[in-house]
Amino acid sequence: MEKRRIPESDLILTDEGAIYHLGLQPEMVADTVIVVGDPARVGKVSKYFDRIDFEVTNREMVTHTGELNGKRISVISSGMGTDNVEILMTELDALVNVDLAKRQIKNKLKSLRIIRIGTSGCMQPDIPLDSFLVSKAALGIDSLMSFYPWVESEEGRVISNKVQRALGLSCKPYFADASQLLLRDFEGANMLSGLTVTAPGFYAPQGREIRLRPSLPDYIDKLSKVSTSMGRFTNFEMETAGYYAMSKMLGHHMISFNALIANRPNEQFSANAKKTTDELIEWVIERL
């Protein structure tokens, strides 16, 4: 049976043969990829590389690919939100698993190791500022998985339904877990683990009020008190659940590390946010 050809309107390439948003060609991507939200954070990671072979910038997506201790590594910025995560993950996967010349999916698929280094706010008063936390799983309260054939585990379905009822959400959340392989690879001291909530915005979707009053003003407090079979919800940000679900569907290994620079119940923001984030980068780099 002839393979499906992916049309030009679905998989867009530049005149140079680079994929549309990332601006990358297949040889520019390593098998181990660090992802960050902030484009300025890419250089803070790649400064540890022994050398940098490719530097590509397109919109908010910046890529540095080089070598560290004999291992080839890429670091790529996504920008904020699961909409950008969906673009990054789809195009990253296409670079390694699609024959771009033939516009066909390859017979042999590759699994990438993808590591997120990001910042996050804490929703539990007993977790101190400037802690590191690995997301063992994440709950997405955005709508991304409404557009994909996402199949939730039974445990995930129970947790998602429980949160939807507790918050009275009109959209169904989704729940995805980290790669067990990478969780084992990165076991270490000074690292909390928890359940992360991925929000579709920074202000009202995370319970903040400036001039507009959130329609769910107390939902962070409600979420913090929801009990699950995997423990309590610990923190929230804007990307992890999208990364975990996309990685599961595409067959990649994904893990998310968070620098906890705010504590919402205690109304605190770290005075050392930059230092804490830089230390988390060093922690990850030392374990690659």
Descriptive notes:
The structure is a single chain. With 288 residues, this protein is an alpha/beta fold. The protein has two domains: 1-110, Nucleoside phosphorylase domain (Rossmann fold, 3-Layer(aba) Sandwich), CATH 3.40.50; 118-253 and 260-270, Nucleoside phosphorylase domain (Rossmann fold). 26% of the residues lie in helices and 30% in strands. The protein has seven helices and 14 strands. The strands form two sheets. A five-stranded mixed β-barrel has the order 7-12-10-8-13. The chain has a two-stranded antiparallel ribbon with strand order 5-6. Strand 11 and strand 12 (231-237) form a beta hairpin. It is globular. It starts with 31 loop residues before the first strand and ends with a helix. The mean pLDDT is 95.
Can I get a quick summary?
This protein is α/β, with parallel strands linked by helices and 288 residues long.
Question: What structural keywords apply?
Answer:
288 residues; 2 domains; alpha/beta; Rossmann fold; 26% helix; five-stranded mixed beta barrel; globular; two-stranded antiparallel ribbon
Topology:
Layout: E1 32-36, H1 40-46, E2 51-58, E3 61-68, E4 71-77, H2 82-97, E5 98-99, E6 104-105, E7 113-122, E8 131-140, H3 154-167, E9 174-177, H4 180-185, E10 192-198, H5 219-224, E11 227-228, E12 231-237, H6 240-250, E13 253-263, E14 268-269, H7 273-286
Parallel strand pairs: 1-4, 1-7, 7-13, 8-10, 10-12
Antiparallel strand pairs: 2-3, 3-4, 5-6, 7-12, 8-9, 8-13, 11-12, 13-14
Helix pairs in contact: 2-6
Mean pLDDT: 95
The number of domains: 2
- Helical fraction: 25-40%
Order of helices and strands: EHEEEHEEEEHEHEHEEHEEH
What is the number of beta strands? 14
State the CATH superfamily name of the largest domain: Nucleoside phosphorylase domain
Number of helices: 7
* Spatial extent as radius of gyration: 19 Å
Sheet/helix structural class: alpha/beta
Q: Note poorly predicted spans.
A: none
CATH class of the largest domain reads: Alpha Beta
- 3D shape: globular
Q: What is the percentage of strand-forming residues? A: 25-35%
The CATH topology of the largest domain: Rossmann fold
User: What strand order characterises the main sheet?
Assistant: 7-12-10-8-13
CATH architecture descriptor text of the largest domain: 3-Layer(aba) Sandwich
- N→C terminal distance: 42 Å
